[in-house]
Every structure is written in C-alpha cells, then in structure tokens.
UniProtKB/TrEMBL annotation:
Keywords: FAD, Flavoprotein, Oxidoreductase. It catalyses: a 2,3-saturated acyl-CoA + A = a 2,3-dehydroacyl-CoA + AH2. Pfam families: Acyl-CoA-dh_C, Acyl-CoA_dh_1, Acyl-CoA_dh_M, Acyl-CoA_dh_N. It comes from Taibaiella soli. Residues 464-566 form the Acyl-CoA dehydrogenase-like C-terminal domain. Gene3D superfamilies: Acyl-CoA dehydrogenase/oxidase, N-terminal domain, Butyryl-CoA Dehydrogenase, subunit A, domain 2, Butyryl-CoA Dehydrogenase, subunit A, domain 3. Residues 1-24 are annotated as: Disordered. Residues 1-12 have a biased composition (Polar residues). Residues 253-415 form the Acyl-CoA dehydrogenase/oxidase C-terminal domain. This is Acyl-CoA dehydrogenase. It comes from the Bacteria. One of its GO terms (molecular function) is flavin adenine dinucleotide binding. Its cofactor is FAD.
C-alpha cells in the first residue's frame, strides 16, 4: 500500500495511493504578501459596498447589482485571472480562488460575481476564437459586459446532454436559428452575453455566444427563490433566435467538452465561495453568542455552545485545507502544461480536468460545510435566528442552493467514484495493485509495531482510511462488476469515505507543516485535525459497513468487516477539550482565526 513520499502531486486522485508530504502541501499560511493585500481589498469592498446593501439587493433594487459588479470590475476583481493581453491581471489560480473565497461572504452578490467570473466568461476565454476573445473578454474583465451561462432546461438538469433546444442553419448559411428554452439562468436579468447550448441537426450538442438583444431571444420574469434573492435568475426563450455562424463556440458537436470542463473549475470555486460564506456566518454567530446572555452569563460559557463553535471552526479548517491544497495542485499542473508548450486554452482546463476528482469532492465538502455552519448559526441565535432581522437567517436561506449548483452533491459523489474507476481502467491510476495488496493483508497477521516518530500514529490513521476505501471499492468492483454502476448507494458510501479521508489528510498535512514552522496556532490546528480524524473514523466505518453489507456475505463479509474495524480504529482522544480550546480562541478572535 505504501508508496514513496511524493515531492509534488500532479496526478489527480493520486492522494489515495500516495504517502503525503507536509512540506509540499500548500496551505493558506503560504500566501504571499500580495495575496494578503488582495484578500484585504475584497474584505474592505464587501464591508463598505456590499454588506450594507444586502436588503436592497434582496429586494432587487433596480441597477444595484450591475453597479456593484462595475465597482468590483474597477478594482480588478472580475478579470483578475484573465490573461493580461485580454485586459485581465493575469493572477495565478490560487489567487483567483482566494478572491472567490473572500467575495463568497457577499450573499447574492457572491453568486453574481462567481457566475460572471466563471461560467459566464471562461467558456469564451478558453474555447473562443481569437476574434471572439478580443471582442468579449476585455469587456467581461472590466465588467463593462456581464456574462451568463445557459445550460439547464425544464427536462434536463443533471442530464445536461438531454437538452431539447435546437439550432438550425438558416437558408443563407449566415445564422443558426435557435429554438427552445433555458431555465434558472443566473445574471440573466442584466447579462449582456450568454453562453448557450443547443443541438444542431438534433444531435450535435454545441455551444453558442448569444448577445442580449439578439432577435428571437426573450428574457423571462425573475424567479422567486428560497434564497439568494438578490441574484438575478430568469428563464430564456428562443424563437428562431438568429445567432451569427461566427458565434459558434468551439467545435460543432463538442459542446459537452465546454460544459463539463468549465464545471470542473466551477466546482472548486463553489467550494471557495461556500467557505467564504461559512466564515462570515461563523463570525456572525460568535459575535451574537458573545453578546447574548442567559442565566446572567454569556452563552459562550456553556459547553453546548462551545461544542458548536468548535465544530464550526473545524469544518471550515477542513474545507480550507483541502481547497488550497487542491488549488495549488491545479496551479502547478497548469504551469507544467505551459512548460510543455500547450496552448493557453489547454493549460487551466487541462489542469482542472486532471484534478476533476478533487474538484467534485470539494464541491460536496464545501457546500456541506456551509450548510452545517449556517444551521448551527441559526441554532446559536435561537428564536432570533428565525427572524429576518438577523442576518443569519439570510445565510441559512442562501446556503441551500449550493448543494444543487454545479451538479447536485449526489451527482458529484457518483462522479468521484466513476472517475476513479474509469482512470483505473484506462491505466491513468494504479488502484488495482494497492487494492490487491490489501486483500492479502486481510488474511495476514496484523502489524502491531509502533513508531515513535512525531505524528506517526496520525499518519497511520490516514493510511488505514485509504486501505478501507480501496478494500471496499475493490470488493465492490470484483463482486458487482458491470452492475456496480446501478448500485448508487454503494458508490456514494465509498465516495463519502474518500471525501472524509481527503479532508483529514489535508488537515493533518497542514497541522504538521504549521508545527514544523513554529506557527502560534499549530497546537489548535492539530486539535482540529485530530478531532476530525476521530469523527471521520466513525463515519468511514459506518459508510464502509453499509457498502459491505450491500455486496458481500458469508466469510467474505466477515473478513471485510474485520478489516474495516482494523482500518478505522483510533486511540482515545478527548475531543470535548479540543473543541473547547478551539472555541475559546474563536471567541477571542470573533470568529475564524486560522
């Protein structure tokens, strides 16, 4: 099972079969001074221009959202990651991720900016012709033009390729006539340009650039939503919509390449935005708890509240550690592809595709971290949390969509295992060798030796979690074979095991690195990592049992259950006191402090 310690990770999904190295794990403690300055600029912009106007945004005050996007554009926050030759700042992927995180605390504004910067602009940047890029990207970079992305239809959500919108070449060969409907299009109420997907000749799924005001395009009324009320969400209707042939985006019949590759980046960025929202909600909740008194004392003095605050910090630390570790991997891969002479439109997309597994996991863990934090935030507020007068109620409503955006969490769980299996079949990842080694280990005498090296016990926990995953995945593939695709419950069980393990490993790498650097919060980082590992062991055990019960029986089942118990065993750790230490520091810092 053990592989040589890596010097860098440039192969997506390989964390499952590689021994990690804290020294090469990028963490937020590695941010450069310029990145800290950009982060502060984002914070200041939210505090001054966005957060004081969240009520007006939710009431859709005419022109307010576009004007805030204009201000963000003037600060360089819209085109930060775009190449300089197209009017952007040319910032690296980690910096772009940091901007997304920081703006993620802006409620509906965060949705508008994320849609514009990501799916609203990147399809043209990475798949457009040079003429298309010159025409649109400089204006999208400054916010002079706002972008939107039109993929979803009434009958096609997760099944994006089931779209019914058609595109027919006009008699004179100068236009494609689009007919159909798109729904839930973010920024549609004010967007100037749309990336739209339709089928040419009924089967060639293709992307198109459609300008606002194009004859035959009608923008419907604003939707009334549960949350993110300030964001514009409208349907689009196409009735012989005349799109010039030069506005075909990418290759005819290859629209799925655009849609799926852009979603990889979008999933990671959604995790970043969700993390920003979670940190803001944590700050709101801590501030309220400090001011709220019951029985003549602040409620922060009660163990139940300490537990909540401590766990909220731990979940944010987990998401943050996994997010920036992955963002740097993508950035490194992008640079490696550049060094190989790959064209610009293949570098970031190729890097994101390489780490599509991590992107899918990040989407799940980030959105579920946010849901946990805002839910606990409402609970800390008590009855006041249910009142619109308190911002935590807005955070609660706004959070829910994130488990649906960018592919539902169920779809992303299924994709995680699907991509692992496909890469194994294609020889891109060697999971078979480690999985077979674990099968042999199950019939051998367990290794009871101990290692006194620092963090050796914790590293062994992570290695064992990986063994549990490979054991269950290998057993499921061997037993179910072609039927595995239809056993979604089993696939999601194993995906949950992988998601927990990825977070646990990322947290531990960060804690070790902080300890080695003498960081003042290193001990609290270890408290967070070790508490997460302790709880993850129980979750991995439970998910593993569910999976094993579904496909194994008899002696095989008993042997796998014994292996699972061995691989998810952890020694005693006082998580109550660890959470209390973390909560005490969070109360002192008025929120997230790492």
């Amino acid at each position: 099972m053990e592989a040589p310690t890596q010097t860098n990770t440039l192969q997506g999904g390989s964390f499952l079969i590689q021994a990690p190295d804290p020294a090469t794990s990028f963490t937020p403690e590695d941010f450069k001074e310029e990145q800290h300055m950009i982060a502060k600029m984002c914070d200041d912009f939210l505090e001054k221009d966005v957060l004081p106007k969240v009520n007006e945004l939710d009431n859709k005050e005419p022109g307010l959202m576009p004007s805030l996007l204009d201000k963000a554009g003037a600060l360089g926050l819209l085109g930060a990651a775009f190449p300089q030759q197209y009017g952007g700042l040319g910032e690296d992927f980690v910096t772009a991720t940091l901007i997304t995180e920081k703006l993620g605390g802006g409620h509906s504004f965060a949705v508008a900016t994320a849609a514009h910067n990501g799916i609203g602009s990147l399809p043209i940047l990475y798949f457009g012709t040079e003429a298309q890029k010159q025409k649109y990207i400089p204006k999208l970079a400054t916010g002079e033009m706002k972008g939107a992305y039109a993929l979803t239809e009434p009958g096609s959500g997760s099944d994006a390729l089931g779209a019914k919108t058609t595109a027919t070449l006009s008699a004179d060969g100068k236009h494609y006539l689009l007919n159909g409907q798109k729904i839930w299009i973010t920024n549609a109420g004010f967007a100037d340009v749309f990336t739209v997907f339709a089928k040419i000749d009924g089967d060639k799924f293709t992307g198109f650039i459609v300008d606002r005001g194009t004859p035959g395009l009608t923008i419907g009324e604003e939707e009334h939503k549960m949350g993110i009320k300030g964001s514009s969400t409208c349907p689009l209707f196409f009735e012989n919509c005349e799109v010039p042939v030069e506005n075909v985006l990418g290759e005819i019949g290859r629209g799925h390449i655009i849609a799926f590759n852009i979603l990889n980046i979008g999933r990671l960025k959604l995790c970043a935005a969700a993390l920003g929202g979670a940190k803001r909600a944590l700050h709101t909740s801590v501030a309220y708890a400090k001011a709220r008194e019951q029985f003549k004392t602040s409620i922060t003095n009660f163990g139940a509240i300490k537990h909540k605050i401590g766990e909220m910090v731990i979940r944010c630390f987990a998401s943050e550690s996994a997010l920036y570790r992955s963002a740097q991997w993508i950035d490194d891969k992008e640079k490696a592809l550049e060094a190989e002479g790959k064209p610009d439109n293949e570098t970031l997309l190729g890097a994101a595709e390489e780490f599509a597994i991590e992107c899918a996991m990040l989407k799940v863990l980030g959105s579920e971290c946010l849901d946990f934090v805002v839910d606990e935030g409402v609970q800390i507020h008590g009855g006041n949390g249910f009142m619109d007068d308190y911002n935590i109620s807005r955070s609660y409503r706004d959070s829910r969509i994130n488990r649906i955006f960018e592919g539902t969490n169920e779809i992303n769980r299924l994709l995680t295992l699907d991509m692992y299996l496909k890469r194994t079949m294609k020889g891109r990842l060697n999971l078979l060798g480690p999985a077979m080694a674990i099968q042999k280990e199950l019939t051998s005498i367990p290794d009871f030796s101990t290692d006194d090296a620092p963090f050796a016990e914790d590293l062994k926990y992570i290695a064992n979690f990986k063994k549990a995953i490979l054991m269950c995945a290998g057993g499921a593939v061997q037993k179910l074979q072609a039927k595995l695709e239809g056993e979604q419950e089993v696939l999601m069980n194993i995906a949950d095991m992988a998601i927990d393990t990825f977070q646990a490993e990322s947290m531990l790498m960060r804690a070790i690195k902080m300890k080695n650097a003498g960081n003042e919060f290193a001990d609290l980082a270890y408290d967070a990592a070790r508490t997460f590992i302790n709880d993850a062991a129980d979750r991995i055990n439970h998910a593993g049992k569910d999976a094993i019960y579904a496909f194994a029986d008899g002696d095989e089942q008993r042997m796998m259950l014994m292996g699972l118990k061995r691989f998810t065993k952890t020694n005693a750790f006082n998580t109550k006191e660890a959470r209390r230490r973390i909560a005490a520091r969070a109360v002192e810092a008025n929120g997230y402090f790492f």
